[in-house]
Amino acid sequence: MWQLKIPAKIRVFAWRACMNGLPTRLSLENKGVRIKGSCPLCEKGPESIKHALVHCSKAWEVWWSWQTCPINFGEGNLDVTDIAMQIMEKGSAMDLEIFFITTWSIWYNRNQVVHEQPYLTPSQVWDNAQRLRCDYKGAITANFLRQQPPVVGWAAPPPDTFKINVDGATTVDGKRSSVGVVIRECRGIMVAARSVVLNACYDVETTEALAIEAGILLAGELKLHKVIIELDSLIAVQAVNSGSCHGTMGPVIHGALNLLNQFGSWKIQHLKRDYNKVAQELAQYARRTDLSQTWMGNEPPWLHNLLLFDRSKC
Ligand SMILES: [Zn+2]
């Protein structure tokens, strides 16, 4: 639990929730405090930790929003620890972070309501929790990126890993946006490339997100196992790394995150624009020719020099 990427106060809260250490009405009543132990929100049972955070109808209305939840915790009389263990078994660290940040948000809102503070709707409680999670992860990623040494040029991936460089091209003239994808192996040799004309004119960020999606799709067709995705949009890289699904590119990022599950391992990183020339050229090619095209193995002649330049540094 201490490894989760969640704010410290929520980590402490999660610990207390699992250790039966939250001041619920039931626990206060048991300690001799003169207070009614029943739930002040639904009045349908004692306010235990599991009631307050999971089984209370007010909590359920929030949990309804968690559509990608890996387990079904509505059934049975599971407590917070049981649920956390099941998520650890069947889900990812991100699922566990979602679970704890949301329980914290539910708890916080309950206390607001009890103290007659403004009441948030269930979807607001959910949205606040997810925003908190994304903001926190975004801050960690930004800090991490600042500490990275600068990359000098394009670098080939390690053996058994494939590098997917992607780029998006978009114009102000309303012409359809396009994306370019190139996949190379550890010697810098092109495995596949693709130029795609998109179905509409998108904003820059959405186009970059769609470029990531195109890269994942091509790697999926090749059944690659370990991949590194690289592009020159820091915003898109951070969105994927933090699982942030806000803004216009949100739905595309969300879809990309699901698609990434197919790989044995994956990583996404930022690369300076000057070093992403091959993917850029592929995106431009689609725009110039208005054609979508895929190359498997054989490099297109007009891409030869750019590929050779990157390869010379391997
Ligand atoms: Zn209740």
Structure overview:
GO terms for molecular function: nucleic acid binding; RNA-DNA hybrid ribonuclease activity. This is RNase H type-1 domain-containing protein. Residues 165-286 form the RNase H type-1 domain. InterPro entries: RNase_H-like_dom_plant, RNase_H-like_EbsB-rel, RNaseH-like_sf, RNaseH_domain, RNaseH_sf, RVT-Znf. Residues 1-63 form the Reverse transcriptase zinc-binding domain. The protein is α/β, with parallel strands linked by helices and 314 residues long. The protein folds into 2 domains: 8-147, no CATH class; 162-311, 2-Layer Sandwich (Nucleotidyltransferase, domain 5), CATH 3.30.420. Helices cover 47% and strands 12% of the residues. The protein is built from 12 helices and 6 strands. It has helices at residues 8-18, 25-30, 49-55, 57-63, 80-90, 93-114, 122-147, 204-221, 234-242, 250-260, 277-289, 304-311, and strands at 162-169, 178-184, 190-197, 226-231, 265-270, 293-296. A 6-stranded mixed sheet has the order 5-4-1-2-3-6. α7 (122-147) packs across α9 (234-242). The model has no long low-confidence stretch (mean pLDDT 89). The structure holds zinc ion. Zinc ion binds next to loops.
